[in-house]
Every structure is written in C-alpha cells, then in structure tokens.
C-alpha cells in the first residue's frame, strides 16, 4: 500500500481535494441559475452562520477580540470567494483550477522567506511539477 494512504495528513489532503473538486463542479453548475457574485454571497453567508456559531458559542475568547477577528476574516474571505467565483465564471473549471495551482509556487517561496520553513528546495520541485502541468494544459 502506498505511503500516501497510510499517512493521516495525506488522506485528509486527498479528501479535501475530492470535496473541492465536487464543490467547484457544483459552483460552476449554479452559474446557469445565478450570477457569480450572488453565488459568492450565499456561500459566504452560509459559512458565516456556521463559523459564527463556532466562534461565539464554542470559543471562550474575549468578545471584542473575537468580533474584530471575525470581521477581518469575513472581509478577506469574502473578497477571496467573490474573486474565485468571478474567475470560475470566466474560464472552464479545469483551466481555472490549474491556474490557481500556480499560487503554490508563491506559497513555497514565501513560506521559506517569511516563515523560515525547511525543505524549501524539495517543495519547490513539487510546486514546479504542478506548474509544468499547468503549462501542459495550456499548450495541449
């Protein structure tokens, strides 16, 4: 059996990728019925309800700190989701997700530069392989 399936983190990453692939397909289907920003609005609203419950009811942190953090996270997350849905509406899902994967190279470089992560060279090789996949999709 492959090591990928024995490691809990790898299994969770694969599960996340599977769920994300279904979510992108469903989101793309919703564009036939609603504008991308409407889809983004309802997605953010649904997540806000769930996260607000966890944040305010289950958390023991001070209320003023929680409200400030929640507002900041809401603005940043909402903007990201809105841009994601607009981009997804402009391109076929396969191309859009491939282009989004280009951010992995930037994440590896910033992780090494800002957070002093280890094994940056190995991670950069993996991210470069994803970049090569994007190039192959664009050329093919």
Pick out its properties.
140 residues; mainly alpha; 2 domains; 7 helices
Give a verbal description of the structure:
The protein has 140 residues and is mainly alpha-helical. It folds into 2 domains: 3-92, no CATH class; 101-140, no CATH class. Helix content is 84%, strand content 0%. It is built from 7 helices and no strands. It has helices at 3-6, 8-30, 36-58, 63-90, 93-100, 103-114, 120-139. It starts with a helix and ends with a helix.
Distance between the termini: 33 Å
Q: How much β-strand is present in the residues?
A: under 5%
Shape: globular
* Number of DSSP E strands: 0
Overall pLDDT: 82
Assign the structural class, choosing from mainly alpha, mainly beta, alpha/beta, alpha+beta, or little secondary structure: mainly alpha
Order of helices and strands: HHHHHHH
The overall number of domains is 2
Major sheet attributes: none
Total of helices: 7
Poorly predicted residue ranges: none
- C-alpha Rg, in Å? 18 Å
Which range best describes the helical content: under 10%, 10-25%, 25-40%, 40-55%, 55-70% or over 70%?
Answer: over 70%
Provide a quick synopsis of the model:
With 140 residues, this protein is an all-alpha fold. It has helices at residues 3-6, 8-30, 36-58, 63-90, 93-100, 103-114, 120-139. 84% of the residues lie in helices and 0% in strands.
